[in-house]
Design goal:
Low-confidence stretches: none
Number of helices: 5
Shape: elongated
Strand order of the largest sheet: 1-2-3-4-5
Mean pLDDT: 91
Oligomer: single chain
Radius of gyration: 17 Å
Distance between the termini: 37 Å
Length: 194
């Protein structure tokens, strides 16, 4: 599917997450992939036009997203993950279904594995709300987040990769190094230290 058929907002969402679209296994399906350094990217989900769950003789776009965060090894290595339908009876537009995939898919383990494979050793630092910085610094997973005091937080490259692959329903870091903690709040800018 040509990304230019989507709204400017949807195109921006995909770019900010380093995501791209590919035709799926049927003419009425689209895969959402993340740039993981491989030639084809990694499938984080797909949307497919199928019979509507509640309206006989109608079609809807169903969203299927990768769910991996509940795997006990998610924070240590790349895991198999499972793909499951997300949402209710389907969406009226392909764009709405793609948005559902972004809201639900988790693929931080894929990006963190790539970070470890390439020897990425950069760090990212930013100033955020003090309570949020304390909270992030106190989390057991992912490893590599340090509260520096005064609302300053540092992420190792691997910790940042986990957040880059987090679902939009939770905290995530986009490709421009903006830390999104709450969809109702403005994101915080992180700066790469090295």
């Amino acid at each position: 599917m040509d990304i230019s058929r989507l709204s400017a907002h949807a195109q921006d969402d995909l770019r900010r997450r380093s995501l791209f679209l590919r035709s799926g296994d049927t003419p009425k399906s689209v895969e959402i992939r993340v740039d993981d350094g491989s030639r084809d990217g990694f499938v984080i989900g797909w949307v497919r036009q199928e019979p509507h769950a509640f309206r006989p003789r109608s079609l809807a776009w169903q969203a299927y997203a990768r769910h991996a965060m509940n795997d006990p090894d998610y924070w240590r290595r790349r895991v198999e993950g499972r793909y499951a339908e997300y949402g209710g009876g389907g969406e009226e537009s392909v764009e709405s279904a793609i948005r559902e995939v972004l809201y639900a898919a988790s693929y931080g383990d894929v990006l963190a594995a790539r970070e470890r494979e390439t020897g990425g050793n950069g760090t990212y630092v930013g100033t955020i709300d003090e309570r949020q910085a304390q909270w992030l610094g106190s989390l057991d997973e992912p490893k590599g987040m340090t509260h520096l005091g005064g609302g300053r937080i540092r992420f190792t490259g691997t910790a940042a990769a986990y957040f880059r692959g987090g679902p939009q329903s939770g905290p995530y870091i986009d490709a421009t190094h903006l830390l999104h903690l709450d969809p109702l709040d403005e994101p915080y800018q992180l700066t790469r230290e090295r």
